[in-house]
Amino acid sequence: MVYFFTLTYTPPPSKGGGCSDYYGNNNDDDDLGRIDPLVVHEQLPSIVYEVYMGKDKFENELLIKYGLDTDVWFHVDNLSSAHVYLRMKDGMVLDDIPESVITDCAALCKANSIAGCKKASVDIVYTRWKNLKKTSDMVEGQVGYHRPSNVRRIKVEKLNDRVKALNKTRIEKQLSEEDLYRLQQEYHREIQRQKKKHYQEQAKLKQQQQLKQRQEKEARSYDRLYDTAYLTSVSDQNATADSSAAEAYEDDFF
């Protein structure tokens, strides 16, 4: 059994309009009669994150094995707890995760720790799923890290209201190991498809740039050829004129 939660993050309103007044003029002076700047606050759209965790240590083991590169793993430090995962959006890194989202995941992790839920506060560790390291001598649910320096820590207190809000969104899915494997493979195929599309677009763009450069080079060569032909024609005309003048002079002389 895997529990899924919906975590909705609403960004704070962005400030637009700068220091311009109603007419778009800058109001940087301190004149008493100036118009106060019109500041526009734009409400950005909410971002919905998927959070999930296993029911017990055996399912935790499967989630460790079949996670995705976009997943972030949370666990109570030095205590037994649920393994909570946050699925980031494509292209995100740890620094992109809003602080409130990290806090919610940490609070959910604390609430699902037998010992941790009794404490006023606990330390939570979190890292990218791909940083989790599993060796044959480890028991179910136990993990290490490929790079311990990439593990982050946060202290979290009891946040019952936020945990209750998350629990209201909880749904249960019966996922077998085959299901988790299939989902992981589908993700990898989609990543490969996106990479292939990106490479094809880059190759097409490169071909277009090379064609444009070749056409510009040919145009410059044609311009030089035209200029050379023109100069040659003018030179021939001047030479003909000089020759005619010389012949006329000789006729007059004799």
From TrEMBL:
This is Fibronectin-binding protein. Belongs to the CCDC25 family. Keywords: Coiled coil. Residues 166-225 form a coiled coil. Pfam families: NFACT-R_1. It comes from Nitzschia inconspicua. Residues 49-146 form the NFACT RNA-binding domain.
